[in-house]
Amino acid sequence: MKNIYYFLIIYILPLQLFAQSKSISDTLKQPINLTAQEDHARLLKLLNIDSLRPGPSGNPNAPNAANSDEAKANPYPNLPDPLKLNNGHIVITPEMWWKQRRPEIKEYFDREIYGRLPQNIPGVKWDVIKVENNKVADIPVITKKIIGHIDDTKYPLINVDIELTLVTPKDRKSPVPVIIHFGYDFSKFPNFDSTKLPPDFDKWKSEILSHGYGYAILIPTSFQDDNGAGLTKGIIGLVNKGQPRKLDDWGTLRAWAWGASKTLDYLKTDKNVDGNKVGIEGLSRYGKAALVTLAYDQRFAIGFIGSSGEGGASLLRRNFGELIENVASTGEYHWMAGNFLKYAGTLTTKDLPIDAHELIAMCAPRPVFISCGSPEVEGNWVDAKGQFMAAVGAGPVYKLLGKKDLGTNEMPPIGTPLVYGDIAFSQHSGGHTNAPNWQTF
Ligand code: GCU
Description:
The chain has 441 residues and is an alpha/beta fold.
């Protein structure tokens, strides 16, 4: 009897398990490969839209140059009221904001703009693969290389890892505040030459460390590519088992923000980090991702949102610099939900039920710093004024929650930071970089 039992366990059970796992992987559909153009056309079909309006050019000398005339910049000057419920009632208490209005705004951003976070996102297992004692600009630090392995048991055909580096000052005995920086993976840049970076490019690191804080560099493209062809791969592809997105599925910005939230989960377990004092920072497309992160994940303590422009802190309703039509095009649509494309097709920005000031309002009551450069150096593409106006527009929500707004509706001159409120704004005199504004932050 005993022998039969052993026979079953040793010979029959493994065979059965093997057959079972083989049939699982046989039944898995291979990930679909679509170019950005193909996927974009697929979304337009789902939306019953034949074509989208083309966006203007970022080249000021082009015949179709983006508008830079302030007199033509506000075709739809009335912004949706962040403190008016969909049923018309005015929000007069913090409780009404938290229980009624904020969820309405979040639902619009989920459905129409950035897409929804899926219910079934697999877990992340963090692995510290290397710890080094080294120096950053003569400051002794502990550097940890960390990988977040995403559980792929439900779809083993796509493997995704999150790349993270944590740097904390070595001589601090207690856990330190940390800022997460959305960083580029320069190793993937063809012919990258680090000597060509501006001299102050990395200065922020020593500035942060000299305050006794740490920083974490998160590589968003390690877990979600920055293009439309990547949408059936990375974390978005893994969750969808290699199939293309539904119209309200998350776009790349939300996926990157999700990665920042997972990073925060890890940081809360690291003994060198004060998990209640973690901020988020990014520039340009990563500035957009930083704002989405801060808006959606209330555990983040503070945000530094650099030159985030259209799809970030600039008002979508404005006609200045980059427009919704540019973001809805094949080069950038992947950042957003499929539904977003409607507003560059059958609808226009005046049909948007929300705008960027309400994304900033979702960050309330936590401090948020809206930053950009000078139009003379950076250009008009990021619409500095549109970002300022959005920061003003978020003010009433901060005030309702007992916090300070920007303190003025007048845009300050370049180099005159407004930093006395819980919403801050500063336009430095440089170009498309956060470098000069770290000190202000
Ligand atoms: C393009 C894009 C912007 C984006 C920027 C960047 O200019 O149109 O929306 O912010 O790239 O990320 O560098």
